Amino acid sequence: MRILILGGTGFIGPHMVRYAQYRGHDVTLFNRGRSNVGLFPGVETLIGDRDGRLDNLRGRTWDAVIDNSGYVPRHVLDSAQLLESTTGRYLFTSTGSVYDFDQDELPEDARVLPIEDPASEDVNRFYGPLKVLCEEAVRETYGSRATVVRLHVVAGPGDPTDRFTYWPVRIDHGGPTIAPGLQTEPVQFVDVRDLAEFFVHLLESDTGGTFNAAGPTLQETSMAEFLYGIRAITSAPVSFTWVDEAVLMEREARFPLWYPPAGGATRGISRVRSNLAVAAGLTFRPLAETAFDTLEWFRTLPEERRDGFQLHLERDREILEAVGAR
User: Which CATH superfamily does the domain covering 2-151 fall into?
Assistant: First the structure.
């Protein structure tokens, strides 16, 4: 297939490029040429901008498009309309942030966020609602040739957010470690490589629809299973102390992938249901594999980047001492 990727040089894009190439597909990138220039020297890159500089896409044909860089509905509508007659399927990368998290669980037909200001293009303020409008632009333009994948937290080698990465690094550091909140609270993420394979599979099978992509299994993974699963990849001596949510909130202590208060207005954030995606071909690699590979990648980063990684050891030591004193 001839696949056009809008973006392609950030975090998830490179994994998609590599897997598409592995599958024998011909990939073209379209981006501003500002980040990771030269990452794929053998891949055609068209330079442009989502905001009015789409001319390099004119007069070309592709079998499918992966839109990884659509945040503003106007930009997405412009590219979708321009490519509608010259491409087959349009796969839009959306987000679980389109949902209202004040729900018990989040299947694809769960309630999404209201559009408070349809004219706004303030992505920082209206990230989720703007993604809702982006999805609508793709569906209205492509109809049955539209595919939307709503991502949860994306983990794995190359992750710039440190949300998942924090835990393998912290547990590998060893020592007394806070395990936040309830042992039974669910944790969700999706490995970027599983995501890349799913995207390419959707294009190869010409599958339309809207899909959640959240793992690491179809069933819920508890915080206890998550932490002890990561512990299995390292020989560092580490001990977990479960600290109540109330104590952590009183001290304004936050931990990645932990969303207090349990059962509150954000209770659905880690109860995203991915049954439709699994039925369509999404698979999950083991938690230990994601954790091990992420830790190995982290160790290859420049020393300055690793030294700046926030583990909050002093904060946690104070909390553990306080808990132990009660």
Answer: NAD(P)-binding Rossmann-like Domain (3.40.50.720)
Q: Mean pLDDT across the stretch 73-89?
A: 97
- Work out the percent of the chain whose per-residue pLDDT is above 70: 99
What residue ranges do the domains of the chain occupy? 2-151, 166-189+217-266+286-325
What crossing angle do the helices spanning 127-142 and 73-83 adopt, rounded to 10°?
A: 20
DSSP helix/strand/coil, 218:
coil
- Beta-bridge partner residues of 30: 6, 46
- What's the pLDDT at 261? 87
CA–CA gap between residue 212 and residue 135 (Å, rounded): 13
Buried b (16+ CB within 10 A) or exposed e, 242-254: ebebebbeeeebe
User: CB under 8 Å, gap of 24 or more: what pairs does 303-306 form?
Assistant: none
* Whether pLDDT at 224 is above 80: yes
Please state which of the four CATH numbers 3.90.1150.10, 3.50.50.60, 3.20.20.70, 3.90.25.10 is assigned to the domain occupying 166-189+217-266+286-325.
3.90.25.10
Q: pTM higher than 0.85, yes or no?
A: yes
| ∠ Cα 214 278 81 (to 5°) | 80
In percent, the amount of the chain with pLDDT more than 90 equals 93
Q: What is the pLDDT of residue 326?
A: 46
